[in-house]
UniProtKB/TrEMBL annotation:
TM annotation in the entry: 52-77, 89-108, 128-145, 157-178, 190-209, 230-249, 269-292, 313-332, 352-376, 388-406, 418-439
UniProt superkingdom: Bacteria
NCBIfam families attached to this UniProt entry: matE
Originating species: Thioclava kandeliae
Subcellular localization, as worded in the UniProt entry: Cell inner membrane
Protein name from the UniProt record: Multidrug-efflux transporter
Amino acid sequence: MGVFGHMRAILTLGLPLVGSNLAAAGLGVTDTVMMGWYGVPELAAVVLGSNYLFFFFLFGTGFANAIIGRVSMALGADDETQARRDTRMALWLSILTGLLSIPCMWYSSAVLQALGQNPVTADLAQDYLRIGGFGIVPMLVVAVLRSYLSAFERTQVVLWVTLGAVGLNIVLNWVFIFGHLGVPEMGVRGAALASVLVQLAVMGVLMIYAHRARGLSHVALWARFWRPDWPAFGAVARMGIPIGLTILAEATMFQMATLMMGWLGTRELAANGIVLEISVLAFMLHMGLANAATVRAGRAYGAGAPEHLRRGAFTVICMSLVVVALTITAFLSIPEDIVRLFVKPGEETAQIVLLASGLLALAAFFQLFDAMQVLAMGLLRGLQDTRVPMWIALASYWLVGIPAGYGLAFHTTLQSHGVWLGLAAGLATASALLMYRFWVVRGGGRNPA
């Protein structure tokens, strides 16, 4: 397959994944907007509770991310039995992780107060989590099923189901938060109940599709689901746990950046939040391409076709660089216009717009590094290579990114700009080391781990 053949295959696979990632982010946006309509204290509680839940979810998605590579490699080797075994054990691990997380949701107020949160807000967040926390099990099951279907290149259904979930979430929020159609007004509990019902609905649809869809039903994913497969269980755990820790390492770097912005001031914190939202939307494009790269690399690796793998890797990197160029151009040429989409006009927000516009220029600077690190990580996952990338991520984000951001922000005159330069330093380190590992150490798929 030539470069243009790879490009078509990556776009066919990757564009629905990009769309589903953006739609999944839309679930959080709709909760935030609708709770903002309800009340500020309730909004703060839902944001706090959602972020608390999200950390447990991020770790649990390590098993889902492991499945993309493992199932793709099994399919490349024409071994659907192994694909079924790995997916079942990933579901076991995800369900186990979710169940172990629920007590942490039930007693979350004490944890949040120990982290310095307002007691009233922490109690409201606990009210949210004592219902919404039960949604972590279906959330993690959905993550595994999305990966399973993506490895089979069934990304269109993932996109449409996720878009449907956004619409359902809006309707259920309207009913349960505000009290409509004869349902009592429930506030934060209503938002939590809506989220759980949406996740259960998505899980049910994907389970039925995986069981009955043409080309998938013969795999018999749910047959004898209760039967353990300890070799597959161990293999998925050994791959998924490092991926989960890698994802947490990057997420905590950005969380620490948010804390440092809060230490600098309220305006800095608000500006940081806006730029992070914009950056996440841009990042979703590269995340979709990285997921597609994992599938394509896994299939080529399983089929024993390293040249095919290298050509595909080169193609997806070039495609990502085009997106980077467009993003940088937009961030540098119209930063204030982009930022104003997120704030109401006024004297107070004018300073936030100015500050956020400066940070957006720095965000443009690290777009290249953010894109390359997630692509390299995706390609390495296609090769079943996760342990060393985990240590690279931990060192890059915790030993370079966070200390550099703190030092530049509080020991120079750069302040908020210093925090984002630290983020760029951490991402640059990770992208360089991960790309070196893929192209040099692993020879683009030629060399064993």
